Automatic annotation (TrEMBL), chain A:
This is ABC transporter ATP-binding protein. The keyword Signal does not apply. The lineage of its organism: Bacteria, Bacillati, Bacillota, Bacilli, Bacillales. Belongs to the ABC transporter superfamily. One of its GO terms (molecular function) is ATP binding. It comes from the Bacteria.
Automatic annotation (TrEMBL), chain B:
Its main location: membrane. Keywords: Cell membrane, Membrane, Transmembrane, Transmembrane helix, Transport. This is ABC transporter permease. The chain crosses the membrane at residues 30-50, 94-118, 125-148, 154-172, 211-237, 257-279. It is found in: Cell membrane. It comes from Paenibacillus tritici. InterPro entries: BP-dependent_transpt_permease, MetI-like, MetI-like_sf, OppC_N. Belongs to the binding-protein-dependent transport system permease family.
From TrEMBL, chain D:
This is ABC transporter ATP-binding protein. It is found in: Cell membrane. Transmembrane segments: none annotated. It comes from Paenibacillus tritici. InterPro entries: AAA+_ATPase (IPR003593), ABC_Ni/Peptide_Import (IPR050388), ABC_transporter-like_ATP-bd (IPR003439), ABC_transporter-like_CS (IPR017871), P-loop_NTPase (IPR027417). The keyword Ribonucleoprotein does not apply. The keyword Cell inner membrane applies.
């Protein structure tokens, strides 16, 4: 298996506070790494550093065999796309879906100007939205639909790594389920490589191949999904797993 | 009606114009504001055809007359028709008010976006400039500059280019800084869009509505400043009609012909109410979206 | 109960408590330096030769040269600046008045008390009235009283402060004879009495923005969850209103007051003119018509310093009232 | 065992000022010491129902029908612990105020009672000497203060509006444990609102399932989970994503 992403000794500090403490992490091609942790564990910071939104203080990131530096090229930007938690804020409220998708497609020259409409419809179809959604504004959609649009936008530039930062946490349970199913379909159909962040162990169990646990800026455990949920290596992982409320039998 | 169309940043296409019109109808404050402002503008535009008098036409045999059918608002100490002068003054004052806002509005919005979007040192430097300028009482600067650059409109334009942008910069900076934390800006950044493009294509349409609302209030302040300068004798030079000089000309007759000073003041208040309602109405519409 | 007894999160540790204060002081200091520089350039950015403005179009070259020397305009810009800064730091002055010959600082200090008194009374009036109106409006949301109070800003925003002054004189002094028509009477109570109308005029121009902001803030706080918690816990409404709601909504309004103080001072200068009060405002207009540049510079400087210092004080007060300010730094 | 219910909600209907119905015809009752779960997604009207029982409906919402009969006082614990505390008032002072007005004691006695409550809820002793602002406490600690404020009213019914949703899983577990043990000790009844059926199932003996303002199913917890009558209930059950059994057993929860 080839490595899609390698993170080496990544460190981020804010003043005296260490948000990320020498993180080392590897992600194999066409697999999904589930990253769990409680609030303040640094999981979102890690995602933002990999996506190039925050510059790390130390360490390096390799995408394939290419090192990602502070100033990324257009092509490197294209390779990593991200989906965010809050569906109310993840789309520009004053752009239509058409504008949102066209901007991504045209900026990275994915298709010709003449092909933009057709491709946008295809993308919406991928995330199970109707073509007539194109001329609507974000506030006309429900939270789950907006999250689908965000996924379509991220996929539109054909990235080699997709980061999803708590994409279902703000959604109602029924909607959460259908978005998770969408992720599952996309994973099998498109062979996506994905970094999936959640505080919800149930969600992580549903989408991941590998699980990584973070706590207070440090990586506590990396394990295969099957091992992790039955025989976690670290005491903290066990504590997390036992705290999940379960249905009585 | 074109007062609103050119203020609406979303540039409605034909389909949207209808819904925009419907929204205006549903927002009484906006509707009243538009009507009040439109009446004023129309009267000011057509006053040469409406009035038999000239603004500076003196008639010493009929001075200080109370309102009558010949002179709707009476005459001043030189026998000039107050109503005619009032609307010619509206032409002067409103033109300056609108023209003087253009450059400050653009620079203020731009600097505010840059400051709020880039943060860090850019923000600190721009904030330092803002803090320095805002330390000088607006009227103090207006008075000094207006005086030094000679009476007339020039002082107002210079002062306003100098300090008028601050209000917009402050509001827009705050907005931009809060938008910056929102995820749609982050996703534009993950696409690799350059900063200037994010500012112009993403931030601008989002900060513009609020900036226009502020513009409405700010125009009231500017109009009041123009009038104040006229009153102090360092604004619009006579014989060009202006509400401020009209108020100060009438002040000696305040006990006998109080309306000479009161009426031009009410004209300013009227304009203020119109712009206030316009601003409130626009804010209402945009808040609902 | 596991680790719930762990230490309190040290978000605002003791060591960092005063950092925000120092930062605020440093920033104010830098702004003051910028203000000084701005005052220096104030008469230099304006087109035209100051000496010519003072002496008039038809002055002799000889007289112009002398005036350049008096104003220090014959030196290089840099030397002028050094001289200016030196004088500021040693004497707190911007030079002697060209007309009277005495120090600008002394002229300003002599006129300052009445202006400061006016600003003080006006601010207190404005704050008290705004608090009252906003509380009434917010607690009667969407009722008649609220609508009435909400209309006030729309109407008063466009009222030129000098015009309001004129109308007040007409009504309260000329018609009703309650107050003197202008000027300041001597003696403690007499002075206060003659300051009432001008102070009301200035306050009148400040109230609309304050009411608007305070009402909006109060409504936001009244809707917030903690008010529901306190209500649910059975705390009497007046305690919630005065102890919790007002305090929470006062902070943003305090900030607004800091921004507005500059307008307040500017308005005072104009109002003094209307009421014939011999304060800083009348000094400004005399100096302007005499083209007395050092005094004009002095007034600009001291007004700006006042604004910076008052803003700093407001920042310190709100920082002291609000524990969150300290954490954000 | 049929004792007198302490709370009876009968065909409760709530509507917005615009006449839009928000909650239709909800009925249930609660007995002394009992726990009832109200489950549903956002917009189901479960929180509004709770506010109606508390007697503090949000501005613009009115009760247009039905009755709420209650023999005892109730107090409430909210979803966002930070939002539920005045950010400018230190927590001990805030709690003391509640004790003072609610239990009609002297100020000094109120403070003693407040400190005892805080200690019982597992807040650090250092609060005795140095009061803290809500912003200086963690989310879990804030929620404990909110619970203390609710308990200071000596409620017969504790109304909980998603009290753990904003918290981390480990903290959630601690808060749930605290609530359970307090209930055992003080014997108050509880109405617990949540979207998470697993939490409700662990705490409550009876459940009411709500959807878009209507009550679609109710009954004894175990029966409801085994044989849900409605597809919506089944969906809620399925939405609790399954986790494999942990080897070596779980450290807590029943």
């Amino acid at each position: 298996m080839e490595l899609a992403l390698q993170v080496q000794d990544l460190t981020v500090r804010y003043g005296g506070f260490t948000a990320l403490d020498h993180i080392r992490l590897e992600l194999e091609q066409h697999t999904t790494l589930g990253l769990v942790g409680e609030s303040g564990s640094g999981k979102s910071t890690l995602a933002r550093v990999i996506a190039g939104l925050i510059a790390p203080d130390e360490g390096q990131i390799l995408l394939g065999s290419e090192e990602l530096r502070k100033k990324r090229s257009k092509e490197q930007h294209k390779q990593i796309q991200m989906i965010f938690q809050n569906p109310d804020a993840s789309l520009n409220p004053r752009h239509t879906v058409r504008q949102i998708l066209a901007e991504a497609l045209l900026f990275h020259r994915i298709v010709d100007r003449s092909q933009v409409g057709r491709r946008s419809t295809e993308l919406l179809d991928r995330v199970q939205l109707e073509a007539r959604s194109l001329d609507k504004y974000p506030h006309e959609f429900s939270g789950g639909q907006r999250q689908r649009i965000a996924i379509a936008r991220a996929l539109s530039v054909e990235p080699s790594l997709l980061i999803a930062d708590e994409p279902t946490s703000a959604l109602d349970v029924s909607v959460q389920r259908s978005v998770l199913e969408l992720f599952h379909t996309l994973r099998t159909e498109l062979h996506l490589t994905m970094l999936f962040i959640s505080h919800d162990l149930g969600v992580i169990h549903a989408v991941s191949d590998t699980v990584a646990v973070m706590r207070q800026g440090k990586l506590v455990e990396v394990n295969t999904k099957d091992e992790f949920f039955i025989r976690p290596k670290h005491e903290y992982s066990r504590e997390l797993l036992s705290a999940v409320p379960k249905m009585p039998r | 009606m074109n007062t609103t169309t050119h203020l609406d940043p979303s540039l409605p296409e034909s389909g949207k114009t209808l819904s925009t019109l419907r929204q205006i109808g549903k927002t009484p404050s906006l509707l009243i504001g538009i009507i009040m402002f439109a009446i004023l503008i129309l009267l000011a535009l057509f006053i040469p055809y409406l009035s038999p008098y000239q603004p500076s036409e003196q008639n010493l045999s009929a001075f200080l007359q109370p309102p009558s059918s010949a002179h709707w608002l009476g005459t001043d100490q030189l026998g000039r028709d107050l109503f005619t002068r009032l609307l010619y003054a509206a032409r002067t004052d409103l033109t300056i008010m609108i023209l003087a806002e253009i450059i400050p509005f653009c620079t203020g919005v731009m600097l505010g976006m840059i400051s709020g979007y880039y943060g860090k040192w850019t923000d600190r430097i721009i904030s330092l400039i803002t803090d320095t300028f805002i330390a000088f009482p607006f009227y103090l600067i207006v008075i000094i500059v207006a005086f030094a650059s000679g009476a007339g409109e020039r002082g107002i334009y210079i002062t306003f280019i100098l300090v008028g942008w601050i209000v917009f910069a402050r509001v827009v900076r705050g907005l931009s800084a809060s938008f910056r934390k929102q995820e749609w800006i982050a996703s534009a950044q993950t696409l690799g869009l350059p900063g200037i493009r994010i500012i112009l294509r993403h931030l601008l349409p989002n900060v513009l509505p609020q900036a226009v609302v502020v513009l409405m209030t700010d125009m009231i302040g500017l109009l009041v400043a123009i009038v104040t300068l006229g009153y102090l004798g360092i604004g619009i030079a006579p014989p060009t009609p202006d509400w401020g000089t009209m108020i100060s000309d009438g002040q000696p007759f305040i006990t006998t012909a109080w309306w000479l000073s009161a009426v031009p003041g009410f004209a300013v208040v009227y304009t203020g109410i119109a712009l206030s309602l316009l601003g409130d109405g626009l804010a209402d519409i945009w808040r609902k979206k | 109960m596991m680790n719930s007894k762990r230490t309190l999160t040290g978000a605002a540790g003791h060591n960092g408590s005063y950092k925000w204060l120092i930062l605020a002081l440093v920033r104010a200091l830098i702004v003051i330096l910028c203000v000084m520089t701005a005052v220096f350039f104030l008469i230099r950015i304006v087109p035209g030769d100051p000496a010519k403005m003072i002496l008039g179009e038809y002055s002799t070259p000889e007289a112009l040269k002398n005036m350049h020397h008096t104003l220090g305009l014959d030196l290089s810009l840099w030397e002028q600046f050094i001289r200016f800064v030196k004088m500021l730091f040693t004497q707190g002055d911007t030079g002697n008045s060209i007309i009277v010959g005495t120090s600008s600082r002394e002229l300003i200090v002599e006129r300052a008390p009445v202006t400061l008194l006016l600003i003080g009374i006006a601010s207190i009036l404005a704050i008290v009235t705004a608090l009252l109106l906003a509380t009434v409006a917010a607690t009667h949301k969407d009722k008649l009283l609220d609508h009435l109070i909400r209309i006030i800003p729309a109407i008063t925003l466009g009222m030129p402060v000098f015009w309001v002054g004129i109308l007040f004189i007409l009504l309260f002094s000329v018609r009703l004879g309650w107050f003197p028509v202008g000027g300041i009477s001597e003696g403690g109570l007499g002075t206060l009495h003659s300051l009432v109308l001008p102070a009301v005029t200035i306050a009148f121009s400040q109230i609309p923005t304050l009411v608007r902001s305070l009402r909006a803030q109060m409504l936001e706080v009244l809707e917030s969850e903690f008010v529901v918690t306190l209500r649910a816990a059975g705390i009497p409404s007046r305690v919630i209103l005065f102890k919790h709601v007002l305090r929470n909504s006062a902070l943003p309004t305090l900030m607004l007051l800091g921004v507005n103080i500059s307008y307040l001072i500017g308005g005072t200068l104009v109002v003094e003119q209307v009421f014939g009060i011999k304060g800083i405002g009348s000094l400004l207009f005399t100096s302007i018509s005499n083209r007395d540049f050092p005094v004009i510079q002095g007034i600009a400087l001291y007004c700006a310093l006042a604004v910076v210092i008052i803003s700093l004080l407001i920042e310190i007060i709100s920082g002291w009232l609000d524990p969150r300010t300290k954490e954000n730094q | 065992m049929t004792t007198q219910p302490i709370l009876e909600v009968e065909s409760l209907t709530l509507a917005a000022k615009s006449q839009e119905k928000l909650v239709h015809n909800i009925s249930f009752s609660l007995e002394r010491g009992e726990s009832l779960g109200l489950v549903g997604e956002s917009g189901s009207g479960k929180s509004l129902t709770l506010r109606a029982i508390l007697g503090l409906l949000p501005r613009g919402v009115e009760q247009t029908g039905g009755t709420i009969r209650s023999k005892v006082s109730s107090s409430m614990v909210f979803q966002d612990p930070r939002g539920a505390l005045d950010p400018l008032c230190p927590v001990v002072k805030q709690l003391t105020e509640v004790v003072y007005y609610r239990q009609k004691t002297t100020h000094k006695a109120a403070r003693t009672i407040a400190l005892e409550l805080l200690e019982r809820l597992g807040l650090p002793d250092s609060l005795r000497t140095k009061d803290r602002y809500p912003g200086q406490l963690s989310g879990g600690q804030c929620q404990r203060v909110v619970i203390a404020m609710a308990l200071a009213c000596k409620p017969g019914i504790l109304l909980c509006d998603e009290p753990t949703t904003a918290l981390d899983v480990t903290v959630q577990q601690q808060i749930m444990d605290t609530i359970t043990s307090l209930q055992r000790e003080l014997g108050f009844a509880m109405v617990f609102v949540t979207h998470n059926l697993a939490i409700a199932a662990n705490l409550c003996s009876r459940l009411v399932v709500m959807k878009q303002g209507r009550m679609i199913e109710h009954g004894e917890t175990h029966r409801l989970l085994r044989q849900p009558a409605e597809a919506y209930t089944q969906m809620l059950i399925d939405s609790v994503l399954p986790l494999p059994e942990l080897e070596g057993g779980r450290t807590s929860w029943n």
